[in-house]
Amino acid sequence: MNIASVIVDVPAKQTDKTFDYKIPEKYKDVIKPGTRVIVPFGPRKIQGFVRDLKGESSFSKLRAIIEPLDLTPVLNEELLQLGDWLTEQTLSYKISSYQAMIPAALKAKYEKKIVLAKGTEFTDLSGNLIELFRENREIKWEDAVSKGLVQQLQKEAASGRVDVVYQVKDRVRKKLLKHVSPAIKSEQLKEIRDKLPPQASGQQSVLDFFLEHQEPVEQRLILSTLGISQASIQSLVKKGILKVEELEVYRDPYSEREFERKIALELTEEQKKSITPILSAIEKDLHEVFLLYGVTGSGKTEIYLQSIQEVLRKGKEAIVLVPEISLTPQMVTRFKERFGDLVAAMHSACRLGRSMMNGGKSSARK
């Protein structure tokens, strides 16, 4: 089998079919159905999925696969068949169906490395891999390809002696804001405060503020609260009395809203009957599945809330899955009224930087 039928990553009607490529001799033991590969396509180099292997092609001149992207297939035969079924049932392109089934890490920007498996020493490897891993327990994928080691590494991966690790690069741009805090102890702050001349009223106000607040405070909040200029802070920073640092802050789309805290409601007899086995399983740390069946307004959400309250009481976390993004606002309101800032919301309409709020224990997401 020296020919691979590849679905290329070009979602279009004209390309929604397999294209045949020759498998280079050095990759014959590596490339299998479900493996991602880089192939030439016109003037470009693009990614694709190997769908099948075969010995002959109806085309006489075939271009060769440039390189594989995986030591082991990311899609097994069952998933490939599922992708074909999805294509037929949803009228989508095959490449779209395949892409939908791979982990998000493989779609993000990442650095791929080959690492020694746990419990493996470099002396357990074969050939020139021993020298390669003698000083480093990991090597970059690009180095493995350039040195022609992919086939050897594939055999080691099949034997469980090496693993492929995908280190995802952070796609979220962190929001950093300047924070001010004391650089010296409170006693020293007070001494300096008492020695400041009357005309240094701005600096006096800042030091009075930090005599009561030792933790870092956002600079713009200090300026607006005290009604002073930035020069007052900069002067104290130059003297080594205060320090300014950029700290990460979380974007909270609900920061401007106030939620009235509400206590748990009194349950009806039917609700009590429904929640009893759930609370029992939580108390016993059992993993059970429960199906709540009730019409709209019958009180299912209150059962969720009180069950989650019990989970939080035990120091654990809870995830609530909402079937539609349009339901998120009303669900967030219900949960924040009960749990306040413990609630975090995540869904596909959120910008990445806003997806996590307050690092909460409970989250509502689609």
TrEMBL record:
Residue stretches making up the Helicase ATP-binding domain: 281-366
GO MF annotation, one: hydrolase activity
Keyword entries, A-Z: ATP-binding, DNA-binding, Helicase, Hydrolase, Nucleotide-binding
GO biological process, one term: double-strand break repair
Gene3D superfamilies (UniProt xref): P-loop containing nucleotide triphosphate hydrolases, PriA, 3(prime) DNA-binding domain
One Pfam assignment: ResIII
PROSITE patterns, per the entry: HELICASE_ATP_BIND_1
Domain of life: Bacteria
PANTHER family, sorted: PRIMOSOMAL PROTEIN N
Record protein name field: Helicase PriA essential for OriC/DnaA-independent DNA replication
